[in-house]
Amino acid sequence: MQDKWKKHGTSRLLSAYHNSAKGLQNIWHTEAAFRQEVALAVPMLVAAFFVGRSITETALLISVCILVLLMEIINSAIEAVVDRVGLEYHELSGKAKDLGSLAVLTSLSLASLVWLLVIGDRLLS
């Protein structure tokens, strides 16, 4: 049985878009790390079209840039939930925040490695 209060079709899509826009506005205004990563990603996204020698290389360069932003969004979501539960120290709260931070660091490392490999291959060819 369907819930009569649930949105369907276009109404559901518009609601999801609205919630996503609120999330973007929130992370932009509250997370300096996200703004810094966007400031790095924008020129890198443009550069990907010049550095990549194939559609696949270009897509890979773009994908790792976006992956970093996605990991920062997820990390910020984890931090918000942990802070909502309580501001006092708890080992599991610290673990959750540390793992979120590790996800961001891992994505940054992967992005750096991919860019270095693609640029290195281009310079050596």
Which key features would you list for this structure?
125 residues, single chain, globular, Helix Hairpins
Provide an overview of this structure.
- The relative contact order is 0.10.
- The chain contains four helices and no strands.
- Helices cover about 85% and strands about 0% of the residues.
- With about 120 residues, the protein is mainly alpha-helical.
- It has two domains: about 1-30; about 30-125, Orthogonal Bundle (Helix Hairpins), CATH 1.10.287.3610.
- It is globular, with a radius of gyration of 19 Å.
- It has helices at about 10-30, 30-50, 55-85, 90-125.
The radius of gyration computed from the alpha-carbon positions, rounded to a whole number of angstroms, is 19 Å
Tell me, what is the CATH class of the largest domain?
Mainly Alpha
Our count of helices gives: 4
- How far apart the termini lie comes to 62 Å
The CATH architecture of the largest domain comes to Orthogonal Bundle
> SS-based structural class?
mainly alpha
Q: What best-fitting shape do the alpha-carbon axes yield?
A: globular
Q: The CATH topology of the largest domain, please?
A: Helix Hairpins
- Which range does the strand content fall in? under 5%
Mean pLDDT score: 94
What is the total number of structural domains? Answer: 2
